[in-house]
């Protein structure tokens, strides 16, 4: 298990965009991943909500990590969809993804994105995607 965590953290650390956004890989298992983000002003759109692109990034990356680990290595998302349920407001976003079906050539993953503010946690988006091995 420790090797999976080390591998995942190494891959995450090599993503310049993840560093730019300020995301963290907070949990990883054999078929799931959790990313989090402390909400900053530069993540917001004109209404004061977290921009949909930020939420979408968290979902896509969490899905790719969950599917990639389930498939045994580096992976790419080949498609995903997202449903925004409510505005992202609060102090932190958490994206939790899990591989729901894994074969030799692809993994189907689902992700929940929650907005947290103190003890309050609200589901703000749901996503699903297909992940394949890279290369």
Structure, explained:
- Helix content is 28%, strand content 44%.
- It contains three helices and six strands.
- The chain has a six-stranded antiparallel beta sheet.
- The two termini are 24 Å apart.
- The model has no long low-confidence stretch (mean pLDDT 95).
- The protein has helices spanning 2-13, 16-21, 52-71, and strands spanning 23-28, 32-38, 75-84, 92-102, 107-117, 120-133.
- It has 135 residues and is α+β, with helices and mostly antiparallel strands.
- 32% of the residues are buried.
Order of helices and strands: HHEEHEEEE
Helix content: 25-40%
Q: Distance between termini?
A: 24 Å
Strand order of the largest sheet: 1-2-4-5-6-3
DSSP, total strands: 6
- Unreliable spans are none
Put simply, the count of helices is: 3
Note the overall shape.
Answer: globular
Question: Could you describe the largest sheet, including whether it forms a barrel?
Answer: 6 strands, antiparallel
What is the percentage of strand-forming residues?
A: 35-45%
Q: Quick check: average pLDDT?
A: 95
Radius of gyration: 14 Å
Instruction: Please identify the structural class as seen in this structure.
Output: alpha+beta
